[in-house]
Design a protein that fits this description.
This protein is of the alpha/beta class. It has helices at residues 17-28, 44-47, 64-78, 101-129, 150-170, 205-218, 226-238, 250-269, 271-275, 280-283, and strands at residues 8-11, 32-37, 54-58, 83-86, 92-93, 132-137, 175-182, 195-196, 245-248. It folds into 2 domains: 3-248, Rossmann fold (3-Layer(aba) Sandwich); 255-286, no CATH class. It has a 7-stranded parallel beta sheet with strand order 3-2-1-4-6-7-9, sandwiched between helices. It has a two-stranded parallel sheet with strand order 5-8. The longest helix has 29 residues, at 101-129. It is globular, with a radius of gyration of 20 Å. The chain starts with 7 loop residues before the first strand and ends with a helix.
């Protein structure tokens, strides 16, 4: 495969964590990559030595003009985009009652609406070629919830729902969607990138307060390796039939099964009440 035939990846949030590791892997494969971050200075080492195959761009996914310009430059340099990785995002710690409206809305703009805007900017080219891969970063927090991260979960549950519908709409067009659901990894999520509400209510100390403390204490000690996680994503994207859901790490797998068991328990315990909500003429068929 010549470099001109190699796949073109467009990756957001490449300054640290999964975005950085994915970009490194893609470029090491001899493939082409558009690597983006809000501060392009953080991309210099990443693209160094890859002048022909890498394009480093400033991109804040909440800025629609920057999105349009980044996609334009990417298509101008490489002609098209094969794989979009919506990785940019961050967390926010607050009990629901402690949440600050402006901070919550800003997080939604990045984690959800920015993902939507960039996806919609890149989809026309993928539809035209009837091929492509869209990798949307969710989290195990997009499948199950904890205290103090309710607003973050809300952004990731939104990504899950959107991505599942997107996968149905794009399947006949030859475009695959992959939802990545990492557990705890040694990225900046629980470190520099993590925001907290200034409001603290004592009544939530045993729930949200405890989770706040645990998040800070565990930062840098998580068992997930971002480089290995990036390799797993690469393998899934390159496969002929990638999964819709890709859990990363043992904690994510265990928590996902625990959520499935909890759902099934509720469904079965309340089965008769559930079925009794239908009109009587339909109940005999249950």
């Amino acid at each position: 495969m010549t470099q001109q035939q190699s796949p073109v990846w467009f990756i957001t949030g490449c300054s640290t964590g999964f975005g950085k590791e994915l970009a490194k892997l893609v470029l090491a494969q001899g493939w082409r990559a558009v690597v983006t971050a809000r501060n392009p200075d953080q991309l210099r080492d990443l693209v160094s030595g890859y002048q022909e195959s890498a394009l480093g761009l400033a991109l804040d996914v909440t800025d629609r003009h920057q999105i349009a310009e980044a996609v334009r430059q990417a298509e101008e340099k490489f002609g098209h985009i094969d794989v979009l990785v919506n990785n940019a995002g961050y967390g926010y710690l607050a009990a629901i009652e402690e949440g600050e409206d402006d901070q919550v809305r800003k997080m939604f703009e990045t984690n959800f609406f920015g993902l939507v805007a960039l996806t919609n900017a890149i989809l026309p080219g993928m539809r035209k070629r009837r091929s492509g891969r869209i990798v949307n970063f969710s989290s195990i927090g997009g499948l199950t919830s904890f205290a103090a991260t309710g607003y973050y979960h809300a952004t990731k549950y939104a990504v899950e729902g959107l991505s599942e519908s997107l996968s149905i709409e794009l399947a006949p067009l030859g475009i695959k969607v992959l939802i990545v659901e990492p557990g705890p990894f040694r990225t900046d999520w629980a470190g520099r990138s993590l925001l907290e509400s200034k409001t603290v209510i004592d009544d939530y100390d045993a729930t949200a307060g405890q989770r706040r403390r645990q998040s800070r204490e565990r930062s840098g000690k998580q068992q997930g390796d971002p480089a290995r996680g990036a390799q797993a994503i690469l393998e899934a994207v390159a496969s002929d039939n990638p999964p819709l859901h890709l859990l990363l790490g043992k904690p994510a797998l265990e928590l996902a099964y625990k959520k499935l068991d909890a759902l099934k328990k509720d469904f079965e315990q309340w089965r008769s009440v559930t079925l009794g909500a239908d009109y009587p003429e339909f109940q005999d068929s249950h």
